[in-house]
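Thread: quick sanity check before group meeting

JM: Hey all, I'm pulling together slides for Thursday and realized we never actually wrote out the predicted structure for the chain we discussed last week. Dropping the sequence here so it's in one place. If anyone has concerns about the input, flag it before I start.
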Amino acid sequence: MTRRDSILREMGLGPIWRLRDAPEVALAADDGPEPAVVQDDPPPAPAAPPPRQAASPLKSLASFQNAAAEPAVARTPPADAGERTARLAGLDWEALTETILACRDCTLCEQRTQAVPGVGDVQADWLFVGEGPGAEEDARGEPFVGKAGKLLDAMLAAIDLRRGDNVYIANAVKCRPPLNRTPEAEELAACFPYLARQIELIRPKLIVALGRPAAQALLNTDIRIASARGRCFDYQGTPVIVTYHPAYLLRNPLDKAKAWEDLCFARRQMRDRQSGQGEV
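JM (edit): ok, ran it. Output follows.
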């Protein structure tokens, strides 16, 4: 078996897709929370919170006194996109990373362990943009390190790429949404100037949007993956190709063949760009 055949089998383009160094049943198992959103469909309505028990007057008074004695951590009032973009203009990588790690521009900061700026080659031709950090990413501070990350690594290898080598990986939002829910429109808007500045610094030749939230953030329009596949979109002169998020593919393995087609399309577009023949 050739190396390419081995990689394609790992991606699932053999009898069954499987992750490297993992048993076949691991594909269907859920040993850690991945983004729960189905990338090409609207998210389900959140479950109603359990009823709250009334606190006794004495307990309420004690809680109030304790709260008054301890200063609360204030969240920065949200600014409009133009103000946030202007604030980030001119920041280099180090300053931008520090700003992301300290960001309190939306409610996602309140439950995160840490923000996850991104990882990879800061002068890469390829930029892959996902949705947001999951639990493992939130703990380690790096995007795509769980099961979805292993699948993404296999997808990259199938088109002769690898993490950190001419590839940068980022997310549309830099903090983990609670329970891995889909980022809300206000959260995507608050975080997008960070991604926009990263794109300005990287200057990639091609962007691959992994999943619906990433595509919507980059293209600033409602979009469905099924109808967007096989097309080149534009982000300020940089071609954008849309495909499924690896976490979605883990739940819907029959769509992995479509993702492989999208990767082959992206590779052709990159070759055309490098040869000067590509058009957005």
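AS: nice. Residues 78-274 form a domain with the Uracil-DNA Glycosylase, subunit E fold (CATH 3.40.470.10). The chain is about 40% helix and 10% strand.
JM: adding both to the slides.
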